[in-house]
Design a protein that fits this description.
The complex is a heterodimer of chains A (about 110) and B (about 110). With about 110 residues, chain A is an all-beta fold. Chain A is built from no helices and eleven strands. At the A-B interface, strand 4, strand 5, strand 9 and strand 10 of A face strand 4, strand 5 and strand 10 of B.
Chain lengths: ~110, ~110
């Protein structure tokens, strides 16, 4: 069964450093997403991406965040200068269509900022 | 502003003891109401999508229902392996708006 994969599973970084989280969405899906979940809190939307551009973003997704689809299979989230409060689980999701079916989530990357 | 509220926050059941989880939502232009299961340290696992009031979907011991203001996840004769956090999410655009979840513990 097709699934969303994410690497790494755990990333530890120093405050102020740049990190890149990687995702391989399900191959025939068109919409790609990043969400985050701070420990003990709800899953929060960050950004959606369609047709090689951002289609929607939340207030959380400020200038320190960027997304890219560098090739036909990968989807990345870059955090330019990490802060302590960026520590969270980051989930990638993909969706075949905007109106049917559902978003399928990856296993997540746990980001720890020291 | 779209809101999703889940109750209770936590629920402890004996194996075989049926119950229901509630998800109240206020969304302008609901496109879908989603249920996911999340195990500790894992990503949300899709369970159901409901699109219109009156719709019901079932999967094993789980049944999801939808009204114009609420959705319920009914768990019939739960087993310990049903222990997880159950997440409800609304969708009015392309992003999912999640509730805080109900943490379910089923004891033998």
């Amino acid at each position: 069964e097709p699934e969303v994969t994410q690497t790494p599973s755990h990333q530890v970084t120093q405050m102020g450093q740049e990190v890149i989280l990687r995702c391989v969405p399900i191959s025939n899906h068109l919409y790609f997403y990043w969400y985050r979940q701070i420990l003990g809190q709800k899953v929060e939307f960050l950004v959606s991406f369609y047709n090689n551009e951002i289609s929607e973003k939340s207030e959380i997704f400020d200038d320190q965040f960027s997304v890219e689809r560098p090739d036909g299979s990968n989807f990345t989230l870059k955090i330019r200068s990490t802060k302590l409060e960026d520590s969270a689980m980051y989930f990638c999701a993909s969706w075949a269509s905007g109106s049917t079916d559902t978003q399928y989530f990856g296993p997540g990357t746990r980001l720890t900022v020291l | 502003e779209d809101q999703v509220t889940q109750s209770p926050e936590a629920l402890r059941l004996q194996e075989g003891e049926s119950s229901s989880l509630n998800c109240s939502y206020t969304v302008s232009g609901l496109r879908g109401l989603f249920w996911y299961r999340q195990d500790p340290g894992k990503g949300p696992e899709f369970l159901f999508t409901l699109y219109s009031a009156g719709e019901e979907k079932e999967k094993e011991r789980l049944k999801a229902t939808l009204t114009k203001k609420e959705s319920f996840l009914h768990i019939t004769a739960p087993k310990p392996e049903d222990s997880a956090t159950y997440l409800c999410a609304s969708n009015s655009g392309y992003a999912l708006n999640f509730g805080k979840g109900t943490s379910l513990l089923v004891t033998p």
